[in-house]
């Protein structure tokens, strides 16, 4: 088990420098692995590494036993005594073969009236049901049984030498820690912290800081690296005890069932070389590669042959350090083969039209569709936006998460998940919704439509499709199992297209059955219903708009996705229909001030996004109480605003900082940052959205946009985030 001696990184400045130069040089700050002591009965359920016991207590608040005995040959094992006592557990005894309680823990032993034995564990009573007792043989040969249902064992720590040995580095033995540490590492690798045999927090910090500073200096960085963070140096002393000799099987390698007697048998049979020992007994083979068993096995062989452990030597360590599935190693692990990917239903149709694709999670999405003669992406995107604003266009939005919510309590369930009400939503209508995390921060947004009294169709953002589904299932199964509601992911079942622009109705009338009423009165804004298409296919049609134009989203079974794209082009040929990608979609949503991923960044509240009035006061919902915390309702919070440079030719860039006019940029004057940017064809300049302190009070104020990464500094105006058609007349017409 990897220990808790992993070094804490050094000062932020040094970490930053090291991260930037990692391609030139790597600093390995791995940990160490606690090793067992070999004794009869050590394979019983309930015999655990001491650090594992601490992990259960500290990390999971779980006590591994009602009466815990500790067997340790080093000071670090005593930390488990502290952990169990602080958690209210019972220590039945401590067995320390060194014969003397470490001075650091003498007071603890006396204060707690601990029974401390000098000797070793010679047997463990129990069976498959666990430990029932521990037999201790003291240094004078006397035997005594101790009542215990858990035995924590610490035989010391093995620094992780595997990473350096993979490059044929030879480990070096250190008597003070009774372990090997990395020796000559290959060029470009530095080992620091616990992996280098430094087991106290203070030593880890100093060692890691020195390694980081040296790496930065070797790569040409200048300046003072500062001082290492300070921490105490816990005492770590060890008296090696590898094997308690007694009757019974004592396991050395638990993965391959190699016992101490197997090692001594190998010596008697002449297999004394460590490589022969490994192959004769399978000690340290396969995925273990000696991480937990080699040192103990080497010690037993060294004793049998009358040599020291360094003289006995070590085997060759083979990568990978942790098991890796063969599938991860198949083929070239780069470019298109770097990770799995998913294709939208219209992907091959879009590829045939020359679409440029972008990775959105695992999805390949059409980013824009270049036309002959267009010199760059901006020209293509501008054309697509203008085509939608003045005519009609469509975009594949099949990557949105889609969830069918059914059952008599479906409305009640959604009321508790979203900040606004859905039980009151009429059948045949859609509503925008916002859900919060339990801490009051916005989790995701989307539209939900009511198909029938007991049937809702919910959509999520592309990025949060999986997490939202998991969240909804947790709510259904754990929080409110009494509700009659069923959930099913429908993301892959439907191909969905957004059709937008003044000529949207004309295009749809060529696709849907003539009996369908597509007028403004017959299909009003935020309407949702099933429609028949020409040819008899049933589709779902939602009148919702992300672009600010009159728009519909049409869903058809996924197998019809490519055909739908083709038919949209055929039906809209005389209308100048234009397919558009995610870049044009982003431009139009910024022009309309619609928030998306950069604003839903895990730090914003509903009010920060300008959606605070949606929070219902008539019902409870997840995050309602925590959203009212003082820090989340403070008047100086950063809220969503619009930002436009005073110089209309100036290009605005996301990530730039907002600083008061005339102020010196710095942490004290930083009032926010630009989250989303685009070139707006309708305003003929770069615009953006940003999160700015007290932003809604400051419309019309001139601020300074400071971008140190690109060495840019200019003035801009804070404005209403809705740049285009603020009244919303176009999407309702």
In short:
The protein has 733 residues and is an alpha+beta fold. Helix 2 (50-60) runs parallel beside helix 3 (78-86) and helix 13 packs across helix 18 (582-591). This is Sarcosine oxidase subunit alpha.
Ranges where pLDDT stays below 50 over 5 or more residues in a row are: 1-29
The percentage of residues in β strands lies in 25-35%
- How large is the count of helical segments? 19
Provide the residue-averaged pLDDT: 90
Strand order of the largest sheet: 27-28-29-26-20-30
User: Which class do the helix and strand fractions yield?
Assistant: alpha+beta
Shape: elongated
Query: What is the number of E strands?
Result: 36
Please give the radius of gyration in angstroms.
33 Å
| Helix percentage | 10-25%
Task: Specify the biggest β-sheet.
Answer: 6 strands, mixed
First-to-last CA distance: 65 Å
GO molecular function: sarcosine oxidase activity
Keywords: Oxidoreductase
EC number: 1.5.3.1
Domain Aminomethyltransferase C-terminal: 640-725
